[in-house]
Amino acid sequence: MPDVHHAHPSSLPPGRRRAAWLLLATVLLVGVSWLVFKYSERVGVERMRAVASQDLNVRAAAIDGVVTRHAAIPAAIQLHHGVLELLRTSAPQQTALAQEVSLFLQQLNDHLGGPAIFVLDVHGRVVASSDWIFSDNLLGADLSYMPFFRSAISGMPARHYGIDHVRPEPGYYFAQPIRDDKQGWRVMGVAVVKSSIRELERRWLQQEAPAVIVDNNGIVLLSSLPEWRYASLQPLPGEAFADIDPRHFSGQEVGRHSLNITIDGADEGVVVRLPKDLRDDVRQFSGIGPYLALSRNLPETAWKIVVFADLRPVALLAATHAALAVAALGCMLLGALYWGQRRRLALGREQARVLMERSHQQLERMVQERTADLSHAITSLQHEVLERQRAERTLRAAQDELVQAAKLAVLGQMAAGITHELSQPLGAIRILSENAAEFMCRGDQATAERSLATVGQLAGQMGNIINPLKTFARKSPAVSSAVDLAHATDAALFLFDQRLQKLQVLVQRNLEPGVWLAYCDPNRLQQVLVNLIGNALDAMAQAPQRQLGLQAERQGAQIVLRVSDTGCGLSQEARQRLFEPFFTTKQPGEGLGLGLTISRDILRDFGGDLQAEVSPNGGVCFVITLPSIPSAQEDPPHA
C-alpha cells in the first residue's frame, strides 16, 4: 500500500489533491513574500542610512560652525583700552568707564548680529554688558557660579552651555581671562560672549525627522520636540545626577525625566523603538514605528547630535515589493491554473447561465422594489420641502408683522409729540386763512396774498413732519440699496425730537452726509435705529448725565455704527440673555422683549450683525455691523 504522506499530489484523491496544491501554493507565496520583504527592507535601511549619514555629516559640521563662530570674540574684547582701565578702577569710580565699555560692547554686538557680550570682574560681577540699554540687562549680575567663570578666572579659556538667571534664554558661553600686562599678567577679569542657540534649534533641528543634541552626560540640550528638552537619554546614575548644578540651567529640572533610548552603535546607525509614552510626541513626524538612530560627534562643543529617521516608509516600500512579488507569482500560478480550469468551466457554463437568469430576475425584482421605495421617499421629501417653504413664508410674514407692529407702537408713543408739532401750524393756518378771507372782503389783496403765502409755508412744514412718519410707518418688503447712515440717523432722531428736548439729552455724532454708505434696506435700518435710540432714552430717563453717542467707523468691507448711552447699564446676566426672545429689563407692561431680537434678525438679513458692549462712559453700547458699498458700485444714497 503506497505511503500517502510521501505520494505526489496527482496520485491523491481529487479533494485532498486540491487541498495539497492549495497548501503548496500558500507556502510558496508566503516564503517568496517573506524573502522579498526582508531583502527590500535591508536594502532600504542601507539606502536610508547612507542618505541620512551624508545629511547628518553636513548638519553636524554646520551646527559646529554656527555654535563656535563667536569663539574668538572674547580674546579681542581686552584690546579695547577701556576694558583694563575699567577692571583696574575701584567700584565707586567705574560708572563712566563702564558706560564707555558697554557702548563699545553694544557696537561690537550689533556688528556680530546677536550674541550678548559682557565683562566680569574677579568676583564674577558683570561690570559692562552689550545689553545695557535694556531693562533686563546683565549689569551687576553675579555669575560667579557659572563654570565658564571659574575656569576663566583660573587662567584657562572656557566654553560652556548654560542659562543665566537674569535672562533665562539658553546660550553657549565663550569665556577668556583678561590679563594685565602692567601687573605681571595677572588675571583682572573675564570677557564672555553668549551665543544664542535657539535659532540653531529652529533652523537645523526642525527637519522631517526628530533630532536632539546631547552633552557628554546624555542630557538633551536642544531638541526639535520641546517635550524632550533637558531629559536624559538613559537614567543617570546618582553621582552623575549629583554633579549637575541646577543654577547652570536657571532652575530647570535637568535629567529627572529619562527617554529610555539606547543609541549604542548609533555612529553607524542602529534601529531603535521609542517607548510608548513618547510616541505621542513624535506623532507629527511619523507614528509609532521603528526608527533608525544616527549620531555624530560635535568636536568643537563636545556634544553629540542624534537624528531619528522613520523606518515606516522603508517597511511600507518593502511590503509593496513583497506584494508585487506575490502578485507576480500569483499571476504565474493563475496562468497555470487557467488551462486546468478551462475544461471545468466549459462543463459548468450551462449551470452558470441558469444561475445568471435567476439572479437577473431576482435583481429586477429588487430594482423594482427599490424604485418604489425611492419614489415614495422622493414624494415624502417633496412634501416636506413644501411644508418647510410654507413655514418659512409664514415665519417671515410674522416677522414683518412684528416689525410693523413695533413701528406702530413707536408712533403711538410719539403721538403726543407729533400732535404738539402739528397743532401750532394748524392753529396758525386757521387764523391766517380767516384773516385772508377778511382782507379779501375788504379788497386788500396784497395782505391776503401774504397770509396765503404764509399758509403755504406752514403746510410745507407740516409735510416735512409727516413725510418721515409716513416713510417709517409704511409696510414694505425689504429691498437693499445704498443708504446714507447720516440721513437714516437724522430720520430716527427726528422721531424722538420732543423726547430728546424734554430729557435734555446731548447727542454726539460724527456722521457726515455722503460719507458713510451702507448696503441695506433704509426703512428696516431706520426701525433698528429707532428701537436702539428708544431703549437708550429709556435707560437714561433717571440718569444724572444724559448723552447719546452715534459714532461710525470702517472695518474692512464693513461699516460699524455704535449707539451708546450713559444710562444704568446692564448686569452680566442681562448681557448674556440680551438677545433672547421675550427677555426684557423693563417693568411689566413696558415692553415685550422682542425689539433687540427682531433688530438683530433684520441686520443679519442684510449680511450684518448686532452686538452689545459695555460703554466707556457707563451704560450700554450697541454695535451695528453693515456691509459697505464698494466704490465702483455706489448708488445714490437713500434716506
Inertia-based shape = flat
**Strand line-up in the sheet with most strands:** 2-1-5-4-3
Sheet-strand content, in percent, reads 15-25%
Low-confidence parts? 1-7, 282-287, 632-639
Q: Structural class, please? A: alpha+beta
- Count the helices. How many? 15
Number of strands: 17
Q: Summarize the biggest pleated sheet.
A: 5 strands, antiparallel
As a percent range, the share of helical residues equals 40-55%
Radius of gyration equals: 45 Å
The termini sit apart by 113 Å
Mean pLDDT: 77
What does this structure look like?
This protein is an alpha+beta fold. Helices cover 49% and strands 16% of the residues. The chain is built from 15 helices and 17 strands. The strands form 4 sheets. It has a 5-stranded antiparallel sheet with strand order 2-1-5-4-3. α1 (14-67) crosses α8 and α8 (312-413) crosses α13 (522-539). Residues 1-7, 282-287 and 632-639 have low confidence and may be disordered.
